[in-house]
Amino acid sequence: MRPLRLAALLLLIITPLVGCAGPTRPDPAGLAAYGAFDLERYFLGRSKAWGLFEPRFGGNVRQFTVELLGRRDGADLVLEEDFRFSDGETQRRVWRIRRQGDQFTGQADDVLGQAMGLAQGNGFRWRYDITLKTDDGGIAVSFDDWLYRFDDEVVLNRAAVRKFGLEVGQVLIAFRKLP
């Protein structure tokens, strides 16, 4: 009887954790429908984004817009992001992104270590640890972004935000390339 109790207890513990798992890697065949996503080509020049952060365990949804400007600096793509949140707060992040085949590395002032990216079909996965500003200073979290190209103007982004490996929220962003 004890092994059955142990198995039941483990099932009760593991089942909620499975729900905390982030997005799985998409099937490459499904990512080819809209053509390859060339991250550097898309983000060169001006673009604008509209997004929101949804906390997993309740709390306020936080909306924002982002003005983006991408330019070349040698082999790097420099991507300037100016955030404006619905509560009036503003933030600026400047990425320095370098391509190595289908893989990318990136750095920004608030990113801990290096961001790692991989292009796959019309999708792009971007993972990094970052310190987000809070009233108490900052909180380190991990982002697991998936960007999807729909055409030359529209890219959608879904990101799982984790702390200690547990998902604490999701970010949804729609990008539009400006002329």
Number of alpha- plus pi-helical segments: 2
Q: Under the CATH scheme, which class?
A: Mainly Beta
Q: Radius of gyration, rounded?
A: 18 Å
The count of strands amounts to 10
- The gross shape turns out to be globular
Overall pLDDT confidence? 86
As a percent range, the share of helical residues equals 10-25%
Low-confidence stretches: 6-24
Q: What is the CATH H-level superfamily?
A: Calycin beta-barrel core domain
Strand order within the widest sheet? 1-2-3-4-5-6-7-8-9-10
Q: From N to C, what is the helix and strand string?
A: HHEEEEEEEEEE
| Span of the ends, CA to CA | 69 Å
Q: Look up the CATH topology.
A: Lipocalin
β-strand percent reads over 45%
* Biggest sheet details: 10 strands, antiparallel, barrel
Can you name the CATH architecture?
Answer: Beta Barrel
Number of domains: 1
Give the helix/strand class.
Answer: mainly beta
Topology:
Elements: H1 2-18, H2 39-43, E1 45-55, E2 62-73, E3 76-85, E4 90-100, E5 103-107, E6 111-120, E7 123-134, E8 137-149, E9 154-163, E10 166-177
Antiparallel strand pairs: 1-2, 1-10, 2-3, 3-4, 4-5, 5-6, 6-7, 7-8, 8-9, 9-10
Description:
This protein is mainly beta. The chain has a single domain, classed as Calycin beta-barrel core domain (Lipocalin, Beta Barrel), CATH 2.40.128. The protein contains two helices and ten strands; from the N terminus they run H-H-E-E-E-E-E-E-E-E-E-E. The protein has helices at 2-18, 39-43; strands at residues 45-55, 62-73, 76-85, 90-100, 103-107, 111-120, 123-134, 137-149, 154-163, 166-177. It is globular and about 40 Å long. The N and C termini lie far apart (69 Å).
